[in-house]
């Protein structure tokens, strides 16, 4: 468990020669319960393109091999011990720090210009004791002290304060917890429902914050986007500015080392003399910074800079699915506005449309990698990198073949087959074996007897 008594997030050393920084005035969070749906989890990429969140807080995500499946590899993720609550940080979130993970919750800390902010995702099943989750949250809040905190949780608790027409025992326990911890509830009484399923509505998704100034700077909104889940997206915007630092990465695998050494050698004597003449700590720090600048300038003249894509394209969500999604949203609005006589008819149409869209989205997602492999012209292109780049580089195959200087794909494949399945050179008659005796065939008279 991480302690936060002496915890302080420091800004990275930002030298103008080696880094670039951008500052955003708002920090955006997205909250949703994904109901263990594969398609709902995969469409988080589309939601991130529309709303540009820094952090996504999820409950009941689709899990495969102990990780949230269907999201880009560049997104960092943390899960609770029961895999029911998770936090996803996007590349726009600068250096998040993982605090701890309990059975029903997970906590993350990010740095803002106004100070550190702790983000917590939690989930409590309606069939389990809610006090277990509340006790875990109480323990985390006690360690944090007076720091800013944002809690996004699906607690399955009913209360009139956040929209329900009735109140149950779980709702009363959550209300007592809010009062005891001095937390502010972002949910509004007259807000749209965060959960809809076949005519049933609910408000189980809650958002709490700690800190008076933080509470006044936050906005909370239920989005009408179609999510492929029974729950809706919740968008939280806070007036917290973040600085994003980026460091250039040079391509050193394509040559250019001699040029770099030539540019560096022009100032080697000057740098060595400056280091030798350093008598104090400040002089040595100046010499070190000058050395860093010189190395960076030499690398910049000799190597190319690797480019990173902060925005990832969704290669399986096509125009046909987008049209059907908009039709579904229009039908959903018509269902909500219709009277009781036509409501049942529209609900049946809505359920059929939802099943059709879900079926086609699953088919498109599962066939996307096959289509990518079919269309590629380079066997060691994107499909290869996505699967086996880190495990079996192409150079290993040529080492097995004796590093041939010529040949085509077919000849390489035949050589690999020969290495895997070498031809047998065993004699026709094994040693110490006697030949079989050729007996005459059985005649019809023998069969009759």
Automatic annotation (TrEMBL):
Entry keyword annotation includes Coiled coil: yes
Look up the coiled coil feature and give its residue ranges.
318-372
* Endonuclease/exonuclease/phosphatase domain segment(s): 118-234
Region listing for Disordered, in residue ranges = 1-24, 423-449
Biased composition regions of type Low complexity, renumbered to the chain: 1-11
Keyword check for Coiled coil:
yes
**Biased composition regions of type Polar residues, renumbered to the chain:** 440-449
Record key words, sorted: Coiled coil
Q: Name one GO molecular function term.
A: catalytic activity
Question: Which superkingdom heads the taxonomic lineage of this protein's source?
Answer: Eukaryota
**InterPro entries hit by this protein:** Endo/exonu/phosph_ase_sf, Endo/exonuclease/phosphatase
Q: Where is the composition biased (Pro residues)?
A: 424-433
Designated name of the protein = Endonuclease/exonuclease/phosphatase domain-containing protein
Write down the species. Araneus ventricosus
């Amino acid at each position: 468990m991480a302690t936060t008594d002496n915890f302080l997030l420091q800004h990275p050393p930002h030298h103008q020669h080696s880094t670039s920084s951008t500052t955003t005035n708002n920090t955006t969070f997205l909250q949703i319960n994904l109901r263990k749906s594969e398609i709902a989890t995969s469409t988080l990429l589309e939601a991130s393109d529309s709303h540009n969140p820094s952090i996504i807080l999820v409950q009941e995500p689709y899990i495969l091999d102990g990780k949230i499946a269907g999201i880009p590899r560049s997104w960092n993720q943390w899960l609770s011990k029961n895999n029911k609550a998770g936090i996803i940080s996007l590349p726009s979130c600068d250096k998040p720090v993982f605090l701890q993970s309990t059975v029903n919750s997970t906590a993350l800390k990010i740095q803002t210009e106004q100070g550190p902010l702790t983000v917590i995702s939690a989930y409590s099943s309606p069939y389990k004791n809610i006090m277990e989750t509340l006790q875990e949250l109480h323990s985390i809040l006690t360690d944090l002290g007076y720091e800013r905190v944002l809690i996004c949780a699906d607690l399955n608790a009913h209360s009139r304060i956040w929209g329900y027409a009735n109140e149950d025992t779980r709702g009363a326990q959550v209300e007592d917890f809010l009062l005891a911890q001095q937390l502010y509830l972002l949910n509004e009484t007259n807000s749209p429902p965060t959960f809809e399923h076949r005519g049933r509505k609910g408000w189980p998704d809650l958002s709490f914050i700690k800190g008076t100034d933080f509470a006044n700077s936050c906005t909370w909104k239920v989005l009408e986007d179609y999510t492929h889940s029974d729950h809706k997206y919740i968008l939280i915007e806070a007036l917290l500015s973040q600085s994003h630092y980026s460091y250039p990465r040079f391509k050193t695998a394509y040559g250019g080392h001699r040029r770099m050494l030539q540019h560096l050698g022009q100032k080697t004597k000057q740098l060595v003399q400056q280091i030798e003449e350093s008598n104090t700590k400040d002089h040595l720090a100046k010499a070190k910074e000058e050395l860093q600048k010189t190395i960076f300038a030499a690398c910049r003249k000799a190597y190319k800079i690797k480019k990173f894509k902060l925005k990832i394209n969704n290669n399986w969500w096509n125009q046909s699915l987008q049209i059907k999604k908009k039709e579904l949203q229009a039908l959903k609005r018509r269902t909500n506005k219709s009277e009781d006589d036509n409501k049942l008819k529209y609900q049946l149409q809505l359920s059929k449309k939802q099943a059709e869209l879900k079926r086609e989205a699953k088919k498109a997602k599962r066939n996307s990698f096959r289509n990518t492999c079919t269309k590629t012209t380079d066997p060691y292109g994107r499909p290869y990198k996505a699967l086996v780049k880190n495990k079996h580089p192409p150079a290993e195959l040529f080492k097995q073949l004796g590093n041939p200087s010529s040949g085509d794909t077919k000849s390489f494949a035949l050589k690999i087959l020969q290495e895997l399945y070498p031809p047998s050179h065993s004699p026709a008659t094994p040693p110490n074996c006697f030949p079989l005796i050729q007996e005459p065939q059985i005649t019809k008279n023998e069969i009759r007897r």
